[in-house]
Amino acid sequence: MSLPTPHIVVLGGGLTGLSAAFHLARKHPNAHITVVEKDARFGGWVRSERLEVEDEDGNKASVLLEAGARTVRANAKPILELINLLNLEPQAITTARSSPAARSRFLHFPGLPGLSPLPSSLLSVFTTPLGRLVLSSVKSEMFTPYNRPADITDESVDAFFSRRFGAVFARTLGSALVHGIYGADSRKLSIRAAFPSMWVSEEIGKGSIVWGEIGPPAWFGAGQRKAEAKIKEDEEAWELGTNADWSRQVARAAIISFKDGLETIVTALVSALEGFDNVTLRKETEVLSLGQDDTSKSFEIRLADSSSLPATHVISALPLPALSAILPPTHSLPHLLTNPFSTVTVLNLVFPTAHLTSPIHPPGFGYLIPRPENGYPAETKSVGMLGLVFDTASLAEQDYAVGPDGPDLPKFVKVTAMIGGPYPTPTPPPDDEALLNDVLPQISAQLQVELPKPVYFKVHRNVQSIPTYLVGHVERMAELREALRQKWAGRLKVVGAGVGGVSVSDCVKSGREAAREIVKEGEFVL
Ligand SMILES: C=Cc1c2[nH]c(c1C)Cc1[nH]c(c(CCC(=O)O)c1C)Cc1[nH]c(c(C)c1CCC(=O)O)Cc1[nH]c(c(C)c1C=C)C2
């Protein structure tokens, strides 16, 4: 007997949804796959824009700007796999691990002028104030006995770092790290969800994260952990290709991006999906409700245009609150509304450099700004900055001079200010021009330089874009998975940044895993 064709609907056309659809289409040519996206474009928070800038002397350049994430780590297998499968090597660019953009990072302490380098060498550990803070915190951590309270199964990043490395380390380095990844308050973020390996290292190191990380291979648990990692790696079966030049380049790299920005992956995924006969891409399609027939277990997805889509399986790559809004009360799921989201405003700035006598910023990746000593203000007249990224330092290959004089280095430098997160929004909220006028003097004071007038700026308000995993997230997600098994017969997969991992690579991986689970389960009986 031949089975009816499975129809898998992917809700959400961000990177997670596109990755799920792509891996499904490759591995499951007999299924029909529909991707439903409510916006007019695919790609979600990943948006790259190329534009031409000109200074007052008529120097012109083509510059690539990102509205959100701009790079991925060079060891991110889910991305390396896509680069291979989509033949993106010629468009990829890398930043070498040895370059200042990969090695030099700074902190700016609120209220103090200038930048403090983060230690990047053995020498700097002894010779810089932050180096000495790291050294003394690490030394004391290694000799602080096991102090995890017996009754906890999770805690905040701040509580975890305070317990092991001390309160100053937690407030400065810990909060800055969390700003730079989650744009969130480290006193709210779950350590187990955000940095699971540290939680495990504490156990392996019998209390000490440092011993857990660097302990000899024979150290209790380390051998087993390695073996487990190897099994997982084999199971994941990454298709990384055989391009030796590219592999060598990646081996030397810290981060990867693309000449035309991270949206290159989105464009390539969309065009690959358009090439599959069994895939339908639907933009500007809003889902009103998702229901499942109790007997047949098949789905009915009602759309805003009054039509409906049948499905045998659904992968939801929607933000969890958006999924919650379309579920019927009979099939509601737990914990979809628990985590708050950070709003991070991204301000792209392009400065002219032709008349500068000294550089705008030191060589390096950029700087992060830790939580103020007295915490975030309750209200404010100025926007709160979380950090500044020196984009040209790591992504210079994205930009080129334009004009009759032939190839030349662009006479511009691009940086990105990251704003908001746990800081309150000023009242009234600033328009773009007011935001610029608020931020430029802040950057000037932080860098201790007089800034030229930017030739271009753009504000992207990434409203509610990054989930803050509250303490207990890992256990709540286990309960969510159980509810999916019980209430939805395992045929609804919930993936994406809201569940486990906010990086571009995590999103691609979670889409891939959902696709592989459906293929592996292989039960397409209607
Ligand atoms: C919109 C702003 C974002 C902030 N964090 C993220 C975005 C998109 C997400 C993010 N940023 C980083 C990671 C870790 C990457 C990994 O583990 O692979 C994640 C998930 C690290 C990072 N932080 C900054 C940059 C440029 C990067 C590299 C990755 C990327 O391009 O996003 C700088 C930075 N990001 C944010 C702030 C406040 C900030 C400050 C300088 C928030």
Question: What would you note in describing this structure?
Answer:
This protein has 526 residues and is α+β, with helices and mostly antiparallel strands. The chain is built from 18 helices and 21 strands. It has helices at residues 15-27, 77-85, 100-103, 122-127, 129-142, 157-165, 167-182, 191-194, 196-204, 209-214, 222-236, 244-251, 263-274, 320-326, 391-395, 432-447, 473-487, 504-521, and strands spanning 7-11, 32-36, 48-54, 60-66, 72-73, 92-96, 105-107, 116-117, 253-258, 279-282, 287-292, 299-303, 308-311, 313-316, 341-352, 366-368, 385-389, 400-402, 412-420, 456-467, 492-494. A hairpin with a 5-residue loop joins strand 3 (48-54) and strand 4. 43% of the residues are buried. The mean pLDDT is 93. The structure holds ligand LM7OVKF4.
> What shape does the CA trace take?
globular
Instruction: Write down how many β-strands occur, each being a DSSP E stretch of 2 or more residues.
Output: 21
Ends distance: 13 Å
Helix content: 25-40%
Structural class: alpha+beta
Bound molecules: the ligand C=Cc1c2[nH]c(c1C)Cc1[nH]c(c(CCC(=O)O)c1C)Cc1[nH]c(c(C)c1CCC(=O)O)Cc1[nH]c(c(C)c1C=C)C2
Fraction in beta strands: 15-25%
Largest sheet descriptor: 7 strands, mixed
Helix count from the secondary structure assignment? 18
Spans of at least 5 consecutive residues whose pLDDT stays below 50 are none
Q: From the alpha-carbon coordinates, what is the Rg to the nearest angstrom? A: 24 Å
Average pLDDT works out at 93
Lateral strand order in the biggest sheet: 8-7-16-17-19-15-20
Protein name: Protoporphyrinogen oxidase
